[in-house]
Design a protein that fits this description.
The chain contains 13 helices and 13 strands. By secondary structure, the chain is α/β, with parallel strands linked by helices.
């Protein structure tokens, strides 16, 4: 490809990819109709997770920069003569539909779910299986989904447990498999049944454990996350791995209390992997500045290899069952 990414940059990697493609289109390096690498190919070329590339491509498609076509691939979008006119007509059509749904007394959250379900139906490609990952923590969802992208022929969606319990149709009939952790298996079994449900075991990665264990005794460790549940998971890991590094406190992204005061009381930080996508830009910049002089450890989850292989086998079985007669 015509660009590289910088893992040490303050800009999230998916945004670096999105910005680079946009710049290439604007600058004429990429022309309307040019074919782009597949998600798998570009992830391999850049040495990053497929989920990161998919997020970048999804953003580019949403902005009309690229088009993803079943059976053909991903291409730079062909520009219409009057894009503003098309956008205005689209917005008017959506407004009319929203008015109709409001007249049926649906909430905005329910409308959002309906749109998501119908869009899923439109983007189903070939015999790709539709998999939804469900967990109570957004910090864990991205990490589990990224690992599942290593399975060929799947489209991955992510849903928080609270949403699924409140709106069970979020994992609609078109979903082939729901993947969750052992902690939520029983609750979801009541909604989707065993035939559509698979569980994975997750644990902190060896890299995360080693970095925590190497913290000097007396290191004042601060924790930051998007939610209290995930900060609790990180805290229990710290109690076990580095009990001599006193915890100086937990701060949630977007909290009102002063971030400067919190950081001033910390010698090191433990953050969820991919935290840049969970916090505000100002917070991300403050954390990047802190990392210049202090250790910042990313709490990374990995799926137990046995449970990952079990999900892979399940996917293979579902593909065989879904394959139409007369087609290989």
């Amino acid at each position: 490809m015509f660009f590289t990414v910088d893992p040490a940059s303050e800009t999230p990697i998916y945004r670096q990819v999105s910005d680079a493609v946009t710049a290439a289109v604007t600058g004429g390096q990429l022309k309307p109709g040019d074919k782009l690498p597949t998600v798998r190919e570009l992830a391999s070329q850049l040495g990053i997770a497929r989920g990161t590339i998919k997020r970048a491509y999804d953003e580019l498609e949403g902005r009309g920069v690229i088009e993803m076509t079943q059976g053909r691939g991903t291409f730079v979008a062909r520009r219409e003569e009057r894009p503003d006119s098309r956008k205005e007509r689209a917005m008017a059509a959506i407004d009319t539909l929203l008015d109709d749904l409001e007249g049926m007394s649906f909430s905005t959250r329910e409308m959002s779910i309906f749109f998501e379900l119908k869009l899923r139906e439109r983007v189903q490609r070939g015999y790709d299986l539709q998999i939804t990952v469900v967990d109570c923590c957004p910090e864990a969802l991205d990490q589990i989904a990224d690992r599942l992208y290593d399975i060929d022929g799947v489209d991955i969606y992510k849903s928080e447990l609270s949403d699924v319990l409140a709106y069970p149709y979020k994992v609609g009939d078109g979903m082939d498999l729901v993947v969750t952790t052992a902690a939520h298996y029983d609750a979801l079994e009541q909604l989707v049944g065993k035939n559509k449900l698979a569980r994975v075991s997750v644990r902190p990665s060896a890299k995360t454990i080693v970095q925590l264990a190497r913290l000097p005794d007396g290191t004042r460790l601060g924790l930051m996350s998007a939610g209290a549940k995930f900060s609790g998971i990180m805290r229990r890991a710290c109690d076990f791995v580095c009990p001599r590094a006193p915890l100086r406190g937990v701060r949630l992204f977007g909290a009102q209390e002063s971030m400067g005061e919190f950081l001033a009381d910390c010698d090191a930080l433990l953050l969820p992997r991919g935290y840049e996508q969970l916090c505000a830009r100002e917070e991300s910049e403050r954390l990047a500045a802190f990392s210049h002089d202090h250790p910042v450890i990313r709490y990374e989850l990995e799926i137990d290899e046995g449970s990952f292989l079990a999900v892979s086998d399940r996917v293979s079985q579902l593909k065989t069952k879904k394959r139409k007669p007369g087609q290989a």
